[in-house]
Design goal:
- The protein is of the alpha+beta class.
- The protein has a single domain, classed as PDZ domain (Pdz3 Domain), CATH 2.30.42.
- The protein is 22% helix and 44% strand.
- The protein is built from 3 helices and 7 strands, in the order βαββαββαββ.
- Strands 1, 2, 3, 4, 5, 6 and 7 form a 7-stranded mixed beta sheet that branches.
- The longest helix is centred in the C-terminal third of the chain and has 11 residues.
């Protein structure tokens, strides 16, 4: 695995991300035989930016659920919201990365 990071995220910020209000857009792209989500339009100061998202990162899985379209990304997020951690895997500049979100439920 390439880079690995961990971020603490409030439940409110997590809900904003899952509702599409976290400061980032996702678009499906073909990568070999599969489809992944490309991150575009990361806006400075938003939840996505604070969590390290960068334009052109890809997201391949959320908690090991593959993302083959935007709806799958939101479904994976909905499933993950009740978990204590959320693991996002993808690629940044062609190298694998893993980001773990630790959900603060206070």
């Amino acid at each position: 695995m390439g880079s690995t990071t961990e971020h603490h995220v409030s439940l409110r910020d997590l809900r904003n991300l899952l509702a599409g209000e976290g400061g980032v857009d996702l678009v499906p792209i073909a990568e070999g035989q599969r489809t992944v989500m490309r991150i575009i339009g990361v806006r400075p100061g938003t939840t996505a930016a604070r969590l390290g998202a960068q334009d052109d990162d890809t997201i391949e899985t959320i908690n090991d659920l593959p993302l083959d379209n935007v709806a799958a990304a939101y479904r994976a997020g909905d499933t993950a919201i009740n978990k204590p951690t959320i693991v996002i895997r993808g690629k940044r500049a062609g190298s694998p990365y893993e980001t773990t979100l630790v959900v603060d439920r206070r």
